Fold this protein.
Amino acid sequence: MLTKRACAPLLEDNPHLEEVLALAPHDSLSSLASRLRAADYTHLLDLHDNLRSRILRALVPGPWRGYPKYRAARALLIHGKRDRYPVHRPVAERYFAAAKGLDVVPDGDPPELFIGPRAVTEAETWLAETGLGRSRPVVAIAPGAAHATKRWPAEHWRQLVDRIVAANLDVVAVGGTADVEVAEAVTAGRGNRSRSTAGRFGLQATAALLRQARAVVSGDTGVMHMATAVGTPVVALFGPTVEAFGFFPYSRRAEVIQLDLACRPCSSQGGPRCPLGHHHCLSLIGADSVFAAVQRSVA
């Protein structure tokens, strides 16, 4: 498996992989191509089909296969609000088109994420030191997102945390270094009942924390997919993106909260600001409805 170095921890303990090739930010595609050509692979699967992967395909001739991205249907849905997708199939299942002829099919289960013992110890030690989850169930939240239009308002997160704590549940916020400020802001002021780990743990230890949680609340982010992979029920908040794009949580143990608005979708990946300036797709989702979904997940 070839991936960016930042994502390699998601794969490094996977027993089904013989090798994980991690592309560092300073690595050139030409040097990577040399490594791939020398390996002389019999099958090459491109699960991105973007500019970078197309350059790599040109540099490494071979039996490449990709999967349908439905670019025209996606553009028509975003700009014309007309759904012409042939099927609403999750991207996780669309990937199997790249493996056509290799005798593999979706098994109906969520994605797999294998957590190493060091990460498990790191997460369990932190929980023991903070006391979270010792006498009450823990709910994990992910208040950050790479794109602003995918972020539920911070005030809504604060209201949700208040409701969760009042229901005799603990809260732990997860995220990367870019999420430290909002994660600390929404969990502060509640004694030892809510804490933030944003920026503290890597992907493996974060996954270990998510596995300890009774439920996870997240936007359309990587944390959402990590939670489905470790088997924790998910409450997912979707705003600028929709199910047709294929990135809804790939698990039956998930509940998606979204609003039926004429302006949705406005983007396939989110953006820096709402095109209409109001961000109603997420700002109009109240803490009460999200908390009700959390209660259902915890139960």
DSSP finds eleven helices and ten strands in the chain. The beta strands are 2-4, 21-23, 44-45, 64-65, 138-142, 170-173, 194-196, 215-219, 234-237, 254-257. Residues 117-130 form the longest helix (14 residues).
